[in-house]
Specification:
The complex is a heterodimer.
Chain A lengths: L1 E6 L14 E7 L1 H12 L3 H7 L2 E6 L2 E8 L2 E5 L9 E3 L1 H9 L12 H27 L16 H11 L1 E4 L7 E5 L4 E8 L2 E15 L2 E6 L4 E6 L2 E4 L2 E5 L2
Antiparallel strand pairs in A: 1-2, 1-3, 3-4, 4-5, 5-6, 7-8, 7-14, 8-9, 9-10, 10-11, 11-12, 12-13, 13-14
Chain B lengths: L12 H52 L17 H5 L12 E4 L3 E3 L2 E3 L1 E6 L10 H11 L9 E3 L5 E6 L1
Antiparallel strand pairs in B: 1-4, 2-3, 4-6, 5-6
The chains are: A alpha+beta, B alpha+beta.
Chain lengths: ~240, ~160
């Protein structure tokens, strides 16, 4: 025998109304219930949509929730009534109600999980497009970032910094360029003027090796190439040591 | 067949996927176009400034018989040109960042130019080093080639407009 409770249904199960509450039908045998469900299945679709009627069936530890749509019966898990139900044909329904076979698991995802997945897809899509926009607007530098590997041996670095230290110029006339390389890993860019040297900018540098050549890698000002102890090459100009 | 759900949700996974596909298609077309429009707009603005400055400096050179002296100090007014440059964008940051400067007789990438205008990085304002931006400015002003003509890359790849080689 099955315990049956109807929700929003008239006693004959032929009509559904939202104002009708729960109706405990007590214990019903499976065959009688199958007959009742036949009537329930044919309920008016408008009434069905408005009242959202259901039939709760329990047998021992098993509980089912039955709904109808377009003259078909659907089995729901009463613990998650909003989840998608499983359509049952009459043979399956008989087997489930008589205990001949277990209730099939509800297919698909719950509406809440669907919403979560939908929002997650949208957020992922937004993040991807934001990254695309960022990459599109990222500047392409005139000079590619230097890739010469940095020196790592401290004694070699100290020795090279000592020998590179000094003051270099492209010439001695106004308009010529100068570089001042410090032992502290700092390089200063200067321009010669009628009244002396005017600072143009400064940066830190790190010593690196580009093939066989020692270079000074700056952060944003490119590479200064050390041709020999008295000669540097930078930004297309040759600088010679003056001090 | 789907079961009787109480309502049809506005958002479903398939609708989200469709939305993302549409958005991605739109972004793929619109983002490069927007970027190019921004680069062109900045280039036009900077080109207009440089043409005005070039005219002012040429006029001064004709009046004085020689180009004005200068030492490349950003936004500095050469002697006697304060009033001439006061009504221009000379002292404001350039649309490409940095500031304009008068840089006569300066060495740039192996060459010395008698008269040149430059846009240089200043504290807090770095001039763009984006090759697309600089190329756009070159197309507005010169031959579209940063290695030839009168608009070139100078010292530290700062852009220069040569008025006299």
């Amino acid at each position: 025998m099955l315990r049956v409770i109807t929700h929003h249904l008239t006693p004959d199960l032929a009509h559904a109304r939202p104002d009708l509450g729960a109706n405990d039908r007590g214990l019903v045998d499976p065959e009688t219930l199958i007959g009742m469900l036949e009537t329930f299945r044919l309920i008016d679709p408008v009434e069905n949509q408005d009242a959202q009627p259901s039939i709760e069936v329990s047998s021992g530890s098993d509980r089912f929730l039955l709904r109808t749509l377009r003259q078909k019966l659907f089995l729901h898990d009463p613990r998650t009534p909003a989840t998608e139900g499983v359509e049952l044909d009459p043979r399956q329904l008989r087997e489930v109600l008589t205990g001949a076979s277990p209730a099939p698991a509800a297919a698909g995802l719950s509406p809440v999980r669907r919403q979560v997945i939908s929002v997650a897809i949208l957020l992922a899509g937004l993040a991807i497009n934001a990254a695309v926009v960022r990459a599109t607007f990222r500047p392409i530098p005139v000079e590619p970032p230097p890739t010469a590997p940095l020196l790592t041996e401290p004694r070699e670095i100290a020795a090279l910094q000592h020998s590179a230290h000094g003051h270099y110029r492209t010439g001695s006339a106004s308009g010529d360029r100068a570089l001042r390389i410090g032992r502290d890993g700092r390089i200063e860019f200067l321009r010669l003027t009628a009244s002396g040297e005017r600072p143009v900018g400064s940066e830190t540098f790190q010593l690196a090796r580009d093939g066989r050549e020692i270079v000074l890698r700056t952060g944003t000002s490119g590479l200064v190439r050390v041709r020999d102890i008295d000669t540097l090459l930078y930004s297309g100009d040759v600088y010679r040591r003056v001090r | 067949m789907t079961s009787p759900a109480p309502k049809h949700p506005v958002l479903t996974p398939w609708r989200s996927v469709a939305g993302v596909v549409l958005l991605t298609g739109f972004v793929a077309l619109a983002a490069p176009a927007a970027r190019d429009a921004v680069l062109r707009s900045r280039a036009r603005e900077a080109a207009a400034d440089l043409r005005v400055f070039a005219g002012v400096f040429r006029d001064q050179a004709l009046r004085a018989g020689d180009w004005p002296a200068g030492d490349g100090t950003p936004a500095a007014n050469p002697a006697g040109m304060e009033s001439l440059l006061a009504t221009t964008a000379w002292s404001t940051p350039s649309p490409l960042g940095g500031h304009y400067t008068w840089d006569p007789d300066a060495v740039h990438q192996g060459s010395r130019h008698r008269a040149a205008l430059s846009i240089v990085t200043t504290p807090g304002s770095s001039v763009s080093n984006d090759v697309r931006q600089l190329a756009a400015l070159d197309r507005e002003l010169d031959d579209g080639d940063l290695g030839s003509g009168n608009f070139l890359l100078g010292h530290r790849n700062h852009p220069i407009l040569v008025l006299e080689h």
